[in-house]
Amino acid sequence: MGIVLEQAIDEFQELIDKVEEPLKTTFKNVHQGYLRETLIRFLKARDWNVTKAHTMLVECLRWRVDNQIDSILSKPIVPSELYRDVRDSQLIGISGYTREGLPVFAIGVGLSTFDKSSVHYYVQSHIQINEYRDRVLLPSVSKKNGRPITTCVKVLDMTGLKLSALSQIKLVTIISTIDDLNYPEKTNTYYVVNAPYIFSACWKVVKPLLQERTRKKVHVLSGCGKDELLKIMDYTSLPHFCRRGSSGSSHQTQSVDCFSVDHPFHQQLYNYVKHHYETQGQAEPAKQGSFHVGFPEPVAERVEMAKTIESKLHKFENCNGLSKPVDDRKASP
């Protein structure tokens, strides 16, 4: 790392050292002992402009305090039937780890319906997964690997993507904005798999709107992406939707659905949140309102992308064959 970048990190740290409570306490939950890596993430998100990175981080810390994010891992989504509904309609899970030790998050973009609960429960669930990743999972794998691991990879399954996605753009924009402003640079690489034609068409118009830093992270893979993903992870870490065409002679054909509420990751997360609620001296509530979080104003880039995608999807409203597999050569970024 160059001298100029080192100076930027040092200058940034001097500024952050001056923040007062309660921002100082919530910052500890953000960096989890990996202060330098955290400062670098915010600097990258603001193109190494120290002033802008400082403003971004302070606003993030204020958002955490104002919305009690530090306590969100003690706020279970109950009853359990509601949690199951959220998991069945907001498809996300962990399938394993890359050979470098990064968690592999699998996301069912095309088949997530977000139609079984209010927007607040979906946002609460998303933030809980973020916080569990950053405060429990990543510190654990860092200790196991003997080095800081502060990012993950995401495999985005576009199976089933269709025009109904139009109704989800607002919610997806809210969640994406929360990530952009408060969890920047937490994803090392995005792998897009099972992309239908409609994704290819949207990608062509959205790609130019992305910052170069983001564009370089996105890789659209051929088909289910199995061959490419096996270059960075073992077969057992492949998401279930990437295991098509596997030979039963060398691999176990039974795939574990990492989206399922019964998957070990979701069971561990739910039990962790439930335990932390109960340690407050209370029994599990039979019913509880959602954990309302203030929605930040979407950044200009997100607004433009949402409008572009919405416009593109409208053009397909009267078209047929939207599930046609994408021509992988045309989909490559």
UniProtKB/TrEMBL annotation:
Pfam families in alphabetical order: CRAL_TRIO, CRAL_TRIO_N
Taxonomy, top ranks, is:
Eukaryota, Viridiplantae, Streptophyta, Embryophyta, Tracheophyta
Q: InterPro entries given for it?
A: CRAL-TRIO_dom, CRAL-TRIO_dom_sf, CRAL/TRIO_N_dom, CRAL/TRIO_N_dom_sf
Residues annotated as domain CRAL-TRIO: 79-239
Organism of origin is Brassica rapa subsp. trilocularis
Which CDD domains does this chain map to? SEC14
Q: What is this protein called?
A: CRAL-TRIO domain-containing protein
